Structure formats: structure tokens, C-alpha cells
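Work Package 4 report. The design task specified in the project plan requires that, given a folded chain encoded as C-alpha cells, an amino acid be chosen for each position. We show below one input record used in the internal validation round.
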């Protein structure tokens, strides 16, 4: 059975599929040539990331040939999921595969922010040899994460992974979620030991009021959760982190809160206007920035490929 991995697949995922007798085609076929290519090459399953679209017209033109559509990652905006399912096609994704990579990026930003690394990495190459003492003074009032409170809004897969890591650092955790009430968090250690603890979620207001750092991890497109009113509820000098989706935090209000000193710093991996974020967000001296790389680690790519392979083996063998 032939599988077209049109937006690529990890070597480990490809190997696993091949070991189970599948043929994996890693050609990148242009969207408009996809229907013909699939027909001519007798492809039974297509794997995509976010680039390739699998819409109703493509599904119809293949007359039942496609047995499975796999999305490496979470969002399925590029696939007509309900229509595909109504035609008996399996539609699968890998929602848990990147939770750890996003959570680690949250802490990469956090560790960097509390010691002003995002700023010192820019200034040291320019002024490190001429203004060493001034820079030392500027960045000399950092804080530690231990003993601080991290507020997690959206306590699903990624939010819980953030909590797992925060426990290891000796942080207090407060979380809000509109569905999850009491969540059991297992914290595993490399030597096989683990501890389990319970987190009872609270209101978003309570999280905003009591946290030193607020990290948002809600699902669902188009929700603006934190604007001026919510920022005013936060502790003076607190920080915001958004690795969820652009627009969950109102960027204009965020810049005002940063410029006024209400909030000390913010970390953004996602932006209102991707792929051309607002220049004043990019130029703010108080923002730690990354270009939507939350899920983009080598390990997550491997997990995505292997998770897709496992599901395909189960469904199509
Ligand atoms: P998830 O579905 O496991 O968890 C999301 C949680 O948010 C759910 O428990 C839900 O009940 C809660 N929630 C939704 N709206 C809420 C609201 N208004 N108030 C309170 N709680 C609310 O999702 P996940 O896998 O943890 O992903 C979280 C976010 O991370 C998603 O927005 C996803 O798009 C994003 N993400 C970003 C990257 C990246 O590269 N930066 C990578 C993967 C996922």
C-alpha cells in the first residue's frame, strides 16, 4: 500500500511504516497536480502538515481511492475532516506529539526573561567591550524561578506539561481551564521514579491576580482572552507568555502594559499577524520572541512520524 507524505515525514516514521510493508513516497507534489499524481501512483493514504490542503474537491476527484488522511501535528484547518469522514476515510492527527517541545520553549523564554538574556544577547555584541560594567548593572537584578508562581490558562496537554516542568523547578502552580476541574499530574524523573500530584483549577481572574508569570495554553482559534482589563488584574511587574495562538493576548494592550511598566516582560512565539508580525511588537525592548517554533524540535518530528505510523499500521494493516 502506498503512502504519500506530501509535507514530509521523519526518518523514524518512514522506517516504521516500511518495516510494516508500506511504501512511503516523500515527493512534494504541487497542490494542483495532487489529484493526478495520487491516481497515477495508486496512492492510498496522504500525510500532510499544514501546507497541503485536502479539500472536498480533491476527495471527490479520487472516487474512493483515498483510505486515510494523516495530519502531523494538531490543527486540521487544511483538511475537510467531516466530509472525508462521511466518505469513510480515516482522518488522524498527532495532538500530543509536540506538548513537551512547546512546554520547553515556555521555559526557554522564562529563563531568558528573568535574567534579561533576550536583551543582553542583542547588546553584548554591540557594546559588550565598551560598556561591560553598565550592562552588568542593567542586567544585574534578575530573579529566580524557584518559589515563584506560574499561572497556566488552558490546562490541557501543553498546560499540564508546563506544570510538570514547573514542579521540577520548585515553582507554585495555579491553573484555569473551562473544562478540566481537578487534574492529576504525574512528574516522571529520568531514573524511573515519579511523583503524582493534583491540581484543582480555579478562575482565570484568580490566576491573573496571583501569578508572577502567566502562560496561556488555550485551544480554539479566534479567542482573545487577555486584553487591557485582564492585564490590569495582574501583579505589577508580572510577565505574560503566549505560545498558543496569535491574538489570544491583545498585542496593542500588551505593548501599552509593557511600556507603562505594569508588566515587566512578555514572551511571544505566536503573533496576531503571522507571518508578518507588527513591527512595534518585534522592536519592543521588553519582548522575548520566537517565530512560531513551539512544536519544532527534532524529537517532536520523530514522535509525529512514529505516532502517524502506529495509527496507520493499526488502521490499514
Ligand atoms: P488541549 O486541547 O489539550 O488543551 C487546551 C485546553 O484549553 C483545554 O483543556 C480547554 O478546555 C482549555 N480552554 C479552551 N478555551 C478556554 C478558555 N476560554 N478558558 C479556559 N480554558 C480554555 O490543547 P494543547 O495541545 O494543550 O494546545 C494548546 C494550544 O497550543 C493550542 O492553541 C495550540 O494551537 C497551541 N500550540 C502551539 C504550538 C506552537 O508551535 N507554538 C504547537 C502546538 C500547539
Amino acid at each position: 500500500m502506498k503512502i504519500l507524505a506530501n509535507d514530509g515525514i521523519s526518518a523514524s516514521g518512514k522506517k516504521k511504516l516500511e518495516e510494516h510493508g508500506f511504501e512511503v513516497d516523500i515527493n512534494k507534489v504541487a497542490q494542483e497536480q495532487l489529484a493526478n499524481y495520487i491516481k497515477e501512483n495508486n496512492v492510498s493514504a496522504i500525510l500532510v502538515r499544514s501546507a497541503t490542503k485536502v479539500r472536498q474537491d480533491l476527495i471527490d476527484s479520487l472516487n474512493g481511492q483515498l483510505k486515510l488522511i494523516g495530519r502531523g501535528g494538531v490543527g486540521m484547518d487544511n483538511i475537510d475532516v467531516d466530509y472525508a469522514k462521511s466518505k469513510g476515510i480515516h482522518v488522524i492527527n498527532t495532538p500530543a506529539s509536540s506538548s513537551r517541545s512547546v512546554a520547553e520553549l515556555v521555559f526557554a523564554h522564562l529563563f531568558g526573561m528573568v535574567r534579561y538574556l533576550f536583551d543582553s544577547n542583542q547588546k553584548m555584541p554591540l557594546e559588550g567591550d565598551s560598556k561591560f560594567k553598565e550592562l552588568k548593572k542593567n542586567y544585574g537584578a534578575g530573579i529566580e524561578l524557584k518559589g515563584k508562581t506560574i499561572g497556566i490558562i488552558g490546562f490541557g496537554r501543553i498546560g499540564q506539561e508546563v506544570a510538570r516542568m514547573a514542579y521540577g523547578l520548585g515553582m507554585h502552580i495555579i491553573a484555569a481551564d473551562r473544562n478540566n476541574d481537578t487534574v492529576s499530574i504525574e512528574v516522571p524523573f529520568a531514573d524511573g521514579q515519579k511523583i503524582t500530584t493534583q491540581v484543582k483549577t480555579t478562575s482565570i481572574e484568580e490566576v491573573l491576580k496571583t501569578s508572577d508569570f502567566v502562560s496561556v495554553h488555550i485551544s480554539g482559534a479566534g479567542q482573545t482572552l487577555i486584553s487591557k482589563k485582564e492585564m490590569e488584574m495582574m501583579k505589577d511587574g508580572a510577565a505574560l507568555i503566549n505560545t498558543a495562538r496569535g491574538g489570544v493576548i491583545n498585542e496593542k494592550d500588551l505593548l501599552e502594559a509593557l511600556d507603562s511598566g505594569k508588566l515587566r516582560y512578555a514572551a511571544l512565539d505566536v503573533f496576531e499577524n503571522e507571518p508578518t508580525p507588527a513591527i512595534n511588537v518585534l522592536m519592543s525592548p521588553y519582548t522575548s520572541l520566537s517565530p512560531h517554533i513551539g512544536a519544532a524540535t527534532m524529537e517532536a518530528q520523530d514522535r509525529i512520524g512514529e505516532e502517524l505510523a502506529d495509527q496507520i499500521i493499526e488502521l490499514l494493516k
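The two ends are 9 Å apart (CA to CA). Validation will be extended to a larger panel in the next phase.
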